[in-house]
Amino acid sequence: AQSVTQPDIHITVSEGASLELRCNYSYGATPYLFWYVQSPGQGLQLLLKYFSGDTLVQGIKGFEAEFKRSQSSFNLRKPSVHWSDAAEYFCAVGAYSSASKIIFGSGTRLSIRP
Amino acid sequence: GAVVSQHPSWVICKSGTSVKIECRSLDFQATTMFWYRQFPKQSLMLMATSNEGSKATYEQGVEKDKFLINHASLTLSTLTVTSAHPEDSSFYICSANTGTEPYEQYFGPGTRLTVT
Fold first, then answer.
1. Which among B43, B105, B110 is the nearest to A106, CB-wise?
2. What Å distances lie between residue B75 and A7, A12, A97, B14, B22, CA to CA?
3. A104 closest CB neighbour out of B44, B98, B109
4. Does the beta carbon of A105 lie under 8 angstroms from any beta carbon of chain B?
5. B107 φ, ψ to 5°?
6. Which of A18, A25, B23, B69 has its CA 20 to 30 A from that of B31?
7. Closest residue in chain A to residue B57, using alpha carbons only
8. Using CA of residue A58, residue A34, residue A106, residue B90, what is the dihedral sign?
9. Is residue B23 within 8 Å of B79, Cβ to Cβ?
10. Are strands A108-113 and A10-14 parallel, antiparallel or unpaired?
């Protein structure tokens, strides 16, 4: 069965500092990987996704993620965070198909220190 | 881009009543839609997969008689919470798959249900 682990429940970084959010997945086939962001009381916004090709994926808002098959990881990074990046971040995995369900990790709450 | 809407955005109902939540794909046809539930400060948990014209597939532990899902058309799926209780209070989010590559799921804005 597919699963996603986000080991960090809450991370605080200073504004302007770099960020890395960890994500490990378990999936029996080639995974379709996602990072979503959710502000309090709001819906989900897709930051980036990966299925194949270049293992370094660029997303919106200056985020990027790197797929490492050997480590079953898909960590999210940003070189310099902004106060507006404070939110909940979810890593998710699915299959590359029209009927595939997406399984979410438990989420990492990001706080920004002024 | 593909847009998914939900209605209502928030609803308050009394314990024992039923409430229906609609999920619509506005500019594409969705053969498959998904319903998630999110409790405060928790992740999204998949409740069921909804296929147009057929019965929904429920995840383990989800009561199919309590959470009725209907996917009558390619653009509309509904979730009815029957005999709601305070423990059903949650954020309900739907998503829809375009059915074509890159098979991205588009999420609705969510519906906040409060049962008093």
1. B43
2. 37, 41, 19, 29, 10
3. B44
4. yes
5. -100, 145
6. A25
7. A101
8. positive
9. yes
10. parallel
Three-state DSSP class for residue A5 = strand
Q: Hey, what long-range contacts does B102-105 have (CB within 8 A, 24 or more apart)? A: B102/A49, B102/A51, B102/A96, B103/A32, B103/A96, B103/A97, B103/A98, B103/A100, B104/A46, B104/A49, B104/B2, B105/A94, B105/A102, B105/B34
From the list A43, A103, A104, which residue is nearest B109 (CB)?
A43
What is the least distance, in Å, from the CA of A38 to any CA of chain B?
10
Half-sphere exposure of A95 (CA within 13 A, CB side): 10
Establish if B107 touches chain A: CB-CB under 8 angstroms.
Answer: yes
Residue A60, token pair as written in the block: 């919106």
Closest C-alpha to A71, from A3, A2, A28, A25: A25
Q: For chain A, 114 residues long, give each residue's pLDDT as a single digit of tens.
A: 789 999 999 999 999 999 999 999 998 788 899 999 999 888 899 999 999 889 999 999 999 999 999 999 999 999 999 999 999 999 999 888 777 888 999 999 999 998
In angstroms, the separation between the Cα of residue B46 and the nearest Cα of chain A is 7
Across the strands, what pairs with B24?
B5, B76
Mark yes or no for CB contact B103/A100 under 8 Å.
yes
Question: Helix, strand, or coil here: A114?
Answer: coil
Task: Say whether A99 and B49 touch across the interface (CB within 8 A).
Answer: yes
Q: Is A90 on the interface with B (CB under 8 A)?
A: yes
Q: β-pairing, B90-97 with B105-107?
A: antiparallel
